[in-house]
Specification:
six-stranded mixed β-sheet, Rossmann fold, 6 helices, alpha/beta, Spo0b-associated Gtp-binding Protein, Chain: A
Length: 376
């Protein structure tokens, strides 16, 4: 499955139906008076968070959404049928922005949460509303209201308790496979994960937390090197970061310098994220003798002057993984909840494709109402 975490869409609520001009026609009642009914209201547009969706890829193929228009009123004071509301499913964790005003409209963080993004036009009044003692046969009616139209920008931020941070090939995908049922790609040759992964780590009966794996960062990512820092947004909802380090890197890179470089990239992206609780996890201990691995681990902690929790593990063999999961579970209740999302999109940056154009314009409006092709 492809992964897409940012997209632009166009939503248009339904137009209200027109009021009716009608007069009562009945035997033996020569002057029945007006009885034109009101038009029905149009349909609203809602975004609904669904927990069985984990990407915005469906919006790559359909980016224009329009609710049903209301139907016109009729004689005998009959009100037109209201248009059906349109519900658009999105993943849990979706942020919704107004593309024109740059306003954050909502943050869908819970399953089945609904957000009204386009309000329908109300139905117009029939001529029954205009009768009076001096106007007993009114021929006035009210046109239906125009439904709201909005260009939206959707941004997905994964909901996870713990996030994995590290260089490419530090063993993040291997660790999430060892701790959860997630199965990201791993191999015996160097490569990097291309999109985020989520895994549920179970530490006991009814005891679990969500772990997020994002593509690896490299020095210079804030200037666009590698995959850049765009996937760091998925760590903003986490309460704890695990900084994975390869204890025996292939290219003999200095682990201390690598950690410092990633700390600088994290601080450049977000000072708030850089200040979040972060644990050191030294991976691939199985590549060295136990005594040598322990010596390197202690030397690394000393060189960094690391005071937060640190763990020596092997994602490939599972050594130390259970103790890491238990420690995370015990620490999570005391960790602060991340702050609410703030609008911080780079509006100059294109969101995959150009914004969809409007579905209709003023030429569709005539004296008789909306053009038929716009109402269907």
């Amino acid at each position: 499955m492809q992964f897409l975490d940012e997209v632009r869409i166009l939503v248009v609520a339904g137009n209200g139906g027109h009021g009716s001009v009608s007069f009562r026609r009945e035997k033996f009642i020569p002057f029945g008076g007006p009885d034109g009914g009101d038009g029905g209201r149009g349909g609203d547009v809602y975004l609904v968070a669904k927990d069985n969706i984990n990407t915005l890829i469906d919006f790559r193929f359909q980016r224009r959404f329009r609710a049903e228009n209301g139907h016109g009123g009729a004689g005998r004071q009959m009100t037109g049928r209201a248009g059906k509301d349109l519900e658009i499913p999105v993943p849990v964790g979706t942020l919704v922005y107004d593309e024109d005003t740059r306003e954050l409209l909502g943050d869908l963080r819970e399953a089945n949460q609904r957000l009204l993004v386009a309000k329908a036009g109300r139905g117009g009044h029939g001529n029954l509303w205009y009768k009076s003692s001096v106007n007993r046969a009114p021929r006035q009616f009210e046109k239906g209201g125009i439904g709201e139209e909005r260009h939206l920008r959707l941004e997905l931020r994964l909901l996870a308790d713990v996030g994995l941070l590290g260089l490419p090939n530090a063993g993040k995908s291997t660790l999430i496979r060892a701790l959860s049922a997630a199965r990201p790609k791993v191999a015996s040759y160097p490569f990097t994960t291309l999109h985020p992964q989520l895994g549920v780590v179970r530490v006991g009966e009814h005891e679990s937390f969500v772990l997020a794996d994002i593509p690896g960062l490299i020095p210079g990512a804030s200037q666009g090197a590698g995959l850049g820092t765009r996937f760091l947004r998925h760590l903003r909802r986490t309460r704890l970061l695990l900084h994975l380090v390869d204890i025996a890197p292939l290219e003999e890179n200095d682990p201390v310098q690598s950690i410092r470089d990633l700390e600088a990239e994290l601080a450049t992206y977000s000072a708030e994220l850089a200040a979040r609780p972060r644990w050191l996890v030294v991976n691939k201990a199985d590549l060295l003798e136990p005594t040598e691995a322990e010596a390197r681990f202690l030397a690394l902690r000393h060189a960094l002057d690391w005071t937060a929790p640190a763990f020596l593990i092997s994602g490939a063999t599972g050594s130390g993984c259970k103790a890491l999961a238990q420690a995370i579970w015990q620490a999570l209740p005391a960790l602060p909840v991340p702050p609410e999302a703030k609008p911080e999109i780079d509006w100059e940056e294109d969101a995959n494709e150009e914004a969809p154009t409007t579905l209709w314009d003023d030429e569709d409006w005539t004296e008789e109402g909306w053009a038929e092709e716009s109402r269907e």
